[in-house]
Amino acid sequence: MRLGLAISFVLQCAMGNLLLGETNASAQETASSKELKIRDTEVSVILQRLGAKMETGLTLKQQLNYTKVFRRFDRDGDLRHSKEEYIKNGRYLTPQSRRGIFNASDADKDGFVTQAEYILNRIITDEAKSIIQEMDDDNDGNIQVGEFIEHANPKLNSETLARDVFAALDTNRDGKIIIPEYLRVWGRWARAGKMSAQERIEKVTRSTDKKPRTHDDESDKSRPRS
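User: That's the sequence. What structure does it adopt?
Assistant: Structure tokens below.
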């Protein structure tokens, strides 16, 4: 009985460490009710210094593209993706990849991805890849610790903080980061202490329950009537 309880406790601790993505002592994230921090610097500030604008940087072209892709998979037109629509019946990537994207997008964990959740996740992931992949100087698909430090140090104004941020992103501790690895951490940081996806997207877009006007609509409007 005692042995069983001990094993259960160890497994729970190990699972907790995996879910929280704990780093070493020098780069450990400190969670509060509102924010995550690294060395007393809020992760939202770190992302901003690295160049992240998140939803405030959304362009009309991006909004239209994200909305178009979202509605392509929204078979029943209810403005949300079910697991069957996106994971089972999706055509892009692998089912495992689609499941990962779905779970990351489903911020409130209700088993559905709303249009706002989908758009916010696309904003976060596309921007993260744009920022981090720019650091891949040798174009091998991996961001080495040296590459990250060289690019991040001037933006963060601290090599120590840059190393700690890399350590937090490098969840498997192999001295390099790849897209799926750093997106899991970056995505959590980009949502920490923030409003809901619906509130965030509504602040910067037209109402999400209306179809945005397309470029073709704008072109038609500008054409002279015969």
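The chain has eleven helices and seven strands.
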